[in-house]
Amino acid sequence: MTSPSSSVDGPGSREPAPDRSSAPITAVPVRYPERWVAAGVVLVLAAMFVNMLLTNPAFDWPFMFEHMFSDPVVRGVWVTLSATVLAMLIGVLLGILLAVMRLSGNPVLVGVSWTYTWFFRGVPRLVLAVLFGNIAILYSTIHIGLPFDNYWMPLLGLEGDARFFEINTRTLLTGYTAGLLALALSEGAYMAEIIRAGLQSVDKGQTEAAQALGMSRSRIMRRITLPQAMRVVIPPTGNETIAMLKDTALLAYVPVTIELFYQLQAIGTRSYQIFPMLVAACLWYLAITSVLMVGQYFLERRFDRGERGVRDRIVGGAH
């Protein structure tokens, strides 16, 4: 009789293969040497740039910090901020009006809105600023009264004119006012397209439902369409505000002598230190735009809160 052990350990018997399914797998990470080479190159370039900032005498940091916070420059900062706020306020209001005209269906209003947008989007803001700064060449005096009085009054046998008020154009349109008007009218054209896109993003079914409930068109616009369109309008409007802040530097060419860039240029020209003052201008604009970017971020989060809530409810219901 053969024992069980001899049948297993005898000649010709096979040992069972070890079970490797539970053995741990050793993962070998993929090597990317080119990434380390690129990182080293970037670090070297960054070190060279910092060294240039600290050692190049053309920057003249003590002179720059001494003059970039002087009283004329600080007043120029407030002028720049005021021009930005006023230009954007006028531009947004004008953009709402133009967008509503464009979507009204009235061919006259649509044509006027399209022509306005076409012109002010096509002409550079620098050209507009200089043009409005010299508008007194076209109109030396601005009159308020009945139109075409020089034609119809002689036909009626009347003498004089039908003008109730007049003012010298140079008195009314100072450099600041002319530059602000140019920026605001140009911004109105861009905001019209942004707001029009926002209005068209709202589902038409909501407008039809509101009309079925008897709401007027103006109330539908104020209560339903505009609040929902804001979610689409806010991000590009924030970008336009930042762009407007930078474009206020164009007022120096009107010229607006109290503007930030003009004041920094003037200091650089008087002291023959032009480059440090140009760097100071970069620092001022970077600081202000950084604050605006932070404000834009929180404003977008506020208007996107309702949309995030809807998405969360949808995802929660799916799970």
Summary keywords:
71% helix, two-stranded antiparallel sheet, transmembrane, MetI-like fold, mainly alpha, 319 residues, ArtM/GltK/GlnP/TcyL/YhdX-like, AA_ABC_transptr_permease_3TM, single chain, 14 helices
Which helices and strands, and how do they pair?
Blueprint lengths: L3 H6 L23 H23 L5 H7 L3 H32 L4 H16 L2 H9 L7 E5 L3 H7 L7 E6 H4 L2 H26 L3 H9 L4 H31 L12 H12 L2 H30 L1 H14 L1
Antiparallel strand pairs: 1-2
Helix pairs in contact: 3-13, 4-5, 4-9, 4-11, 4-12, 5-9, 6-9, 9-11, 10-11, 11-13, 12-13
Describe the structure.
- It is a single chain.
- With 319 residues, this protein is mainly alpha-helical.
- It has a domain at 83-255: MetI-like (MetI-like fold).
- The chain contains 14 helices and 2 strands.
- It has helices at 4-9, 33-55, 61-67, 71-102, 107-122, 125-133, 149-155, 169-172, 175-200, 204-212, 217-247, 260-271, 274-303, 305-318; strands spanning 141-145, 163-168.
- The chain has a two-stranded antiparallel ribbon.
- Helix 4 (71-102) packs antiparallel against helix 5, helix 10 packs antiparallel against helix 11 (217-247) and helix 12 packs antiparallel against helix 13.
- The radius of gyration is 34 Å and the shape is flat.
- The two termini are 67 Å apart.
- The model has no long low-confidence stretch (mean pLDDT 85).
